[in-house]
Amino acid sequence: MGKIDVEGLCYSYPNVADQALTDINLKIEPGEFILLTGPSGCGKTTFCRCLNGLIPHFYNGEMKGDLKIDGISTREHPTYELAKHVGLIFQNPDNQIFSLTVEKDIAFGLENLGESREKMRGEIDWAMNQVGIVPLKERGTHELSGGQKQRLTIASILAMHPGIIVMDEPTAFLDPVGAEKIFEVLQTLNREHGITILLIEHRMDLAVKYCGRIIVFDKGRIVNDGTPREIFTSDETRLIGIGIPRMVELGRRLSQRGYNIGIPLNSDEAFTKLTPFLKKSVTTNTKQGLPELDEIVGEYTHTPIIELQDVTYSYSSGIDALLGVSLTINKGEFVAVMGENGAGKTTLVKHFNGLLRPKSGNVVVDGKDVSKNSVASMARKVGLVFQNPDDQFFAEDVEEELSFALRNFGYEETVINERVEWALNLLDLQRYKKSSPFILSGGERKRVALASILAWNPDILVLDEPTVGQDHGQKERLKHFLMQLRTQGKTVVIVTHDVEFVAESQPRVVLMSKGRVIADGTAKKIMTDARSLGACSVAPPEVTKLFSKLTLYSLPIDVLDVDEALDLLTRKLRRDNP
Amino acid sequence: MDPRVKFLMTMVIFALSIMFFDLIPLLAVFILQIPLILYAKIWREWLKTLKGGAFLAVIIFTTNLLSFYFFRGMHLSGENVEFSLSLTLRFLSLITSFSLFFLTTSPDKLSLALEKAKIPYEFNFAFITAIRFVPVLADEAQTIMDAQRSRGLELDKGGFLSRIRKYIPILLPLIVNSIRRSLELAEAMESRAFGATKNRTNLYELKMAPSDYFALVITLGALAFALYVRLFLPPLPKLMSGLLFL
Question: Can you give the residue ranges of every domain in chain B?
């Protein structure tokens, strides 16, 4: 159980000229833990659909070559037979939970297979136990949190006892600690039950800790296949721009400077490899002898632009989402709001343009009380970019989509054209001007959504989870773009779970937990404060994890990104190894 | 309680309410349901439903009264009032019987009953999925509305037609997302071996308990008694026959 053989697999979707997969040859042995990666649109999701026969049975199109699961050809056997061998889990748990209660949903597959009631009872208990949701057995599926739902989807697949589990970005919507818990569940299944795991994931730093093999896709082909160390040292990887884990990057660059610590995959490995080169020291001033770094002080003015005073909010369902939040954001500041799933982050930013009005307390934006002004008038000041671009597209083409808000605000036709052109150029969308937003790829759709907000040039820009589902290259572009906006004096607020993105762009960080702000300060201060982070399910960045272990070696702990780490370590290494 | 017995009870109450035009039996049917409501501990939800139905009940009552008044030469007899009252009570009885059924039967149980009634599983599945996705769709509609309002859409401004046109930016994403969702759902169903065997099993089971048989006997007894009263006894006396209102 758990073996995959692929020979000369080619596939094109119906009515699409380009091949989605070209000449895939692959052997996967039972019990492997494999990471599938590559830029958006590289064919990795298509490949997963081949594994349980959704391609060619559900999707039609043209398939050549052979794919065998445990020796069974996917072409000759229907998906429902293959379901006993391969379990596919998709990104959005809501679209794969069919039943109203947890136990009934786990039973769904078994009922379809016609299993007896006694057998189902046994399998359900076993599967719930494996993923740790036993207490939820009789709960309604709609009451579950994001992490619980994702665990339920694993249990539902697990109950059918597949030898292979395939997951397409299972943690995209989860907070860092929730994501890590999902990976741990997969690791246990892999180690204790020998289940083959195939995982699509963009969060390389996290995923690399668990996998033993990485397969890199690009333009429908496999361009690289090997152990993480092999992959991250090969130049091909660099060329197609998948994210390199921070520790690998650090190791590689230290080697270039003559300190060969190999290729560490995580902070633990980096620590063990570094320590032989470092001398312990008991000096209290940890930065002694090392260059003093300028404190990162924002270039912002001290003119408040968003002011919240004791804001509380509860939804009509009775959930108290905000329990007294006071917060001041200054003009030109760059702020990241972080915290566990359900901490109240999105609720908070919906107050900025008056979509939600505080139950008690005040929200004042640019001198205006949001409770006394319409959403439309506040929106001119505050552009809110939602997480899922599909929640706003309705127009025939991109141009129309971009001019929607401008028309609502009553601009003159000539001004509208001008602004639309400007936004198209700004986000490199000129060539899609007349395309329907629905046919664009995920990354392009996100850019159109952003452009449709930037079109009216709001002073304050709020982005909800801008990095979700984005590949490494797209994240880099977003980071640079946000920097660019800051130099124009815009106030930028992002809501995010992406620890590494925050570590590298270094905004002011507002940590929220259970409807309250629990910490607020520079990224350096907050992202290295393990206690506060732990309280709201955020894990520190990899670099910080390494430096928190190195405190005995008279190195500072508040280090976030690779560049700074490299700088400090090189100086320290040079001093300790003359 | 077995959903099939409950369904039969609802149907019998339905039949009883339809069978009679007189105030006495309708009042009896209505009052007899109250202990059941209390027993099922759903009186709070029931009152809410009644409140919702109150408006319709008032309309039924007044239109009946008015039509009697105008067509019977501008006067109103006690019998007319009684008849209007009966019709209103019949309406409330029906609401109550359906509340009794739907408020106490989980959709899973209901689906199981449908399955036992040999309704094809596809219909059954569609029914459960529809219920399952109500909250999901509601959330999504709210998000879409928020996204468009953030882009300056003002739903409560303008004339009737322009207001309707303003719902296009909300309905379109909702429809497109639903189509996309249905595709993802289909993929997930396939991945869970949907349609693998004709002899699909069900985790839950329907078993008639002694109390179910008891309820069944009572229900059928009530039906038989009502039929006897309706068909073989002389018409029931009117309560307000002597009175003259207007």
Answer: 1-105+218-246, 118-193
